[in-house]
Amino acid sequence: MAKAKTVFFCQNCGFESAKWMGQCPGCREWNTFAEEPRAAVRKTAAGAAPRQVPQPRTLSEISLGETVRMTTGIGELDRVLGGGIVPGSLVLVGGDPGIGKSTLLLQMCRNLAGCRKKVLYISGEESLQQIRMRAERMGQFDEHLLILCETNLGDIREAITRVEPEIVIIDSIQTMYNEDVTSAPGSVSQVRETTGALLQIAKSMNISIFIVGHVTKEGVVAGPRVLEHMVDTVLYFEGDRHAAYRVLRGVKNRFGSTNEIGVFEMREAGLAEVPNPSEYMLDGKPKDASGSVVTCTMEGTRPVLLEVQALVCKTSLAYPRRTAAGTDLNRVNLLLAVLEKRAGLGLSFCDAYVNIAGGIRMTEPALDLGIVLAIASSMKDQAIDERTIAFGEVGLSGEVRSVSMAEQRVREAKKLGFETVILPEACRRQAARVEGIHLLGVRSVREAIREVFTQSGTNPS
């Protein structure tokens, strides 16, 4: 018998090779190649009609029709999608197990079905009874929502053609398989070929398709990296599954911004929107506690106020311990070095722990000044006035650099009752348009520390 032909695929980027290699030439990752049977290739029948080849067109010949987006009935989801669902789009939703991906999409299906939209929910992981039990907790569903439990792509294609829905949910892509591909479901070949077939269905029939994807331990969607390049939008559902809050973040969007986030709270009846995340993030902030300061970050056009916590104590180890939760550890180490060199704080023999309260991960440079002041507050064991907020980027020379959208940040701080804003001196003129709040412009880290503790009524030394 002839030996079955096999090829090697990179599990990270999908690079194909005839032999195994230690390092992938595409993504430069090590030990990512896996052997799989070569996918079968369909041959065109002898009497088949010739295929129509499309002709190139100039830009002036292409008409710009206004795209009508479908609202999902969930404001936070519409914000991340760029205003709603674009017909014919392919959206990938990733997240940890149990984070709420299926719950969010089922709630979206309920709202769309209530607006007389025909929705087809295809599940490859749960039975019809399991979906019904989850739906009972959410409330009443309209009969325009159709449920199908199937993993065969051929049967799914036939069902979509027969039903002609406007929205299709695939839960999840790792369970679907194409009979023309001989490898197992969830493999690189199956995920790539199945996603390509769904992309063709979405574009040819003008159907919006949402795909649920599992994630790896690194937090990225399992399967080839090319999967994210094939779809129109990639959404990640973040947060601790044991915490109440979830963050929906767009990392790719061909129809809108990739800087927007949606905040949800997990409740017994499903996911509830959090229209004002700043108020929720600051709930439970301790009073008169050292090492705590409020800062502001921008997610797209939305300002979000966060509490930065720091704990500095003398170390008993040969090398001080540095830990960061919710932000970049390398950035924290850089700021610790700036404080020691430019502000004269002896942190070389101290453990430092930095945390962004609320379980949200933020890496915007505007958090730098808040982290610096929180570390200084814990180091001196002196509390910062709870009605004070700080934001700004810190450079290696100890300077406080300007950040974007300072006026929106100050306006959000005023709305939540803050009285003083510590910001870069370069942003002070722009933020001066907001009245009724005291603006304190600083040029360096040393000046910021001095002004903060002078305002708090403590000795800055």
Major beta-sheet overview: 9 strands, mixed
Let me know the number of strands.
Answer: 21
Q: From the helix content, strand content and strand pairing, which structural class follows? A: alpha/beta
CATH fold field value of the largest domain: Rossmann fold
CATH class of the largest domain: Alpha Beta
Report helical residue fraction. Answer: 25-40%
> Spans with pLDDT under 50 lasting ≥5 residues?
40-48
How many domains make up the coordinates? 3
Strand coverage percent = 15-25%
Average the pLDDT over all residues and give the rounded result.
86
CATH H-level superfamily title of the largest domain: P-loop containing nucleotide triphosphate hydrolases
Q: Would you identify the CATH architecture of the largest domain? A: 3-Layer(aba) Sandwich
Molecular shape: globular
Q: Distance N terminus to C terminus?
A: 84 Å
Helical run tally: 12
Per-chain topology:
Layout: E1 6-10, E2 16-17, E3 33-37, H1 75-81, E4 90-95, H2 101-114, E5 119-123, H3 128-138, E6 145-149, H4 153-163, E7 167-171, H5 188-205, E8 208-213, H6 226-230, E9 233-238, E10 245-253, E11 261-267, E12 270-273, H7 277-281, E13 292-299, E14 302-314, E15 322-325, H8 329-342, E16 350-356, H9 368-380, E17 388-390, E18 393-394, E19 400-401, H10 406-415, E20 420-424, H11 425-431, E21 438-442, H12 445-455
Parallel strand pairs: 4-8, 4-9, 5-6, 5-7, 7-8, 15-16, 17-20, 20-21
Antiparallel strand pairs: 1-2, 1-3, 9-10, 10-11, 11-12, 13-14, 14-16, 18-19
